[in-house]
């Protein structure tokens, strides 16, 4: 199992035992800037089982937890790991917003992707109206490289370069 650690967070590769806690973090407010709607428990469980039983080799999903008390804060992902610039994703439960956990989690994922996969940059699509997530990309020196549209919202796509920061540890 992949474990990524930063000063305040631990990102663990998703396992079925995480499903109930992660599901409890999903709300309509969280899904506002996600391409999906909040699923029912049975839909969520089916998706999780499929992901665990038939993992995609170029897609990594991580549960984000506080290091001090193991509280589940949300999820992060790295997809298209075989591409030149893998795609990052992140969502955090509402009570975790505004504390720097998003930036810390994305930075840790970038460092892991660089150290483990040898990647020099990462793409990070963000809903145009999601100012907090746009700030994450910008604080990590991301630059807008494109736009995307999906049925729920329009987004900008950032390219975030890897930069040395000795921020995280992996195992």
Explain what the structure shows:
This protein is α+β, with helices and mostly antiparallel strands and 171 residues long. Helices cover 29% and strands 31% of the residues. It contains five helices and nine strands, in the order E-E-H-H-H-E-E-E-H-E-H-E-E-E. It has helices spanning 19-25, 28-31, 41-53, 101-117, 131-139; strands at residues 3-5, 9-13, 60-66, 72-79, 87-92, 121-127, 143-149, 154-161, 169-170. The strands form two sheets. The protein has a six-stranded antiparallel beta sheet, with helices on both faces. A three-stranded antiparallel beta sheet has the order 6-8-7, with helices on one face. Strand 7 (143-149) and strand 8 form a beta hairpin. It is globular and about 40 Å long. The N and C termini lie close together (8 Å). The relative contact order is 0.18. The model has no long low-confidence stretch (mean pLDDT 93).
**Broad shape:** globular
Low-pLDDT segments: none
In percent terms, what proportion of residues is strand?
Answer: 25-35%
- Radius of gyration, rounded? 15 Å
Most strands sheet: 6 strands, antiparallel
**Class from secondary-structure proportions:** alpha+beta
Topology pattern, helix = H, strand = E = EEHHHEEEHEHEEE
Write down how many β-strands occur, each being a DSSP E stretch of 2 or more residues: 9
